[in-house]
Amino acid sequence: MSPKQLPAYQWAQSPNMKQVNTMKMIRTMAAVVAVASVLSACGGGSDDVGKELGLTNPEIHFIHAIPSGPAVDFLVNGSAPSGQNNVSYKGVTNFTNINSGATTVAYAATGTTTELASGNFPNVAKGHEYTVLALPGLTGTDIGLVDDPFDKGLLSNSARVRGFNASANSTNLDLYLVQATNTSITSVSPTMAGVAFKNAVPASGQDSIYVSGGQYVLIATTAGSKTPIFQSQSFTLSNNADWLVTSVPTAGAISQLVPNQIQLLIAQNGNTNTPSVELTNTLTGQ
């Protein structure tokens, strides 16, 4: 009897069908391995493949963006994951895996579980990266949340950039990422426009902006203005970098109350053990 003449339950168990399924699985795995190999040669890695395909566990990390703030523990569903405690200003923790679904996040003074601020990701998803920021609020401590779907193309080596406003003394900002050889912003549009306090651009849930590596300068203005309130020195943005550019109030109790007195922090996403870099404002020397 040929396979086509077998009853359905026998056909499902036939050696020919098992071979077909096995070959399909092998071809799929081979394709993933091939893409991973090409990606690795371009500067990416197997983690990028898993994220792009939505296969890897969700990952989360924490950034301390409160100038002069105390060290804190990052809490996920009420407890601090390994490596997510005693984080000082400018600290950026490595990514740690979390489960899918609704997730509560908070931070507390180191060694305690008394929350200084808290928030919620209602639907944590595989392949996504989540960032939680401790930030100074209008009347006390506050929290910022970013859901990054990580839609980077498998063969792309572009840098990823997103802006976040953690400065309550600057309600809306335009951020310009310009070539170091031409820092005039008179006739160019903001790279990240209208970044409101406690918000990201691109917005949480949207993918980052992609740019080529090179020498750049960051410029901040109040939204709609062409007059810089912050201009960085020249810096290198490498291919495959993944940056969160965060505005914070200039350190000091008085300056934090003065409108538009800001600094820019550069936080490198990923498992780098590298703290945020506070860029110098060439307009003020701070």
Number of domains: 2
| Low-pLDDT regions | 1-46
Number of E strands: 18
Tell me what portion of residues adopts beta-strand conformation.
35-45%
Nearest-integer average pLDDT: 85
Shape: globular
Query: Would you tell me the structural class of the helices and strands?
Result: mainly beta
The Cα radius of gyration reads: 23 Å
Continuous helix count: 3
Helix content: 10-25%
N-to-C span: 84 Å
Order of helices and strands: HHHEEEEEEEEEEEEEEEEEE
Largest sheet, described in full?
6 strands, mixed
Question: Mind explaining what this structure looks like?
Answer:
Strands 8, 11, 12, 16, 17 and 18 form a six-stranded mixed beta sheet that branches. The protein contains three helices and 18 strands. 14% of the residues lie in helices and 37% in strands. The protein starts with 7 loop residues before the first helix and ends in a 7-residue tail after the last strand. The chain has helices spanning 8-13, 15-41, 46-52, and strands at residues 59-64, 72-76, 96-97, 101-109, 115-124, 129-136, 141-148, 159-165, 172-179, 192-196, 200-201, 209-211, 214-222, 228-231, 235-237, 242-249, 262-268, 277-279. Mean pLDDT is 85; it is low at 1-46. With 286 residues, it is mainly β. The chain folds into two domains: 3-41; 48-279, no CATH class. The longest helix is centred in the N-terminal third of the chain and has 27 residues, at 15-41. The chain is globular.
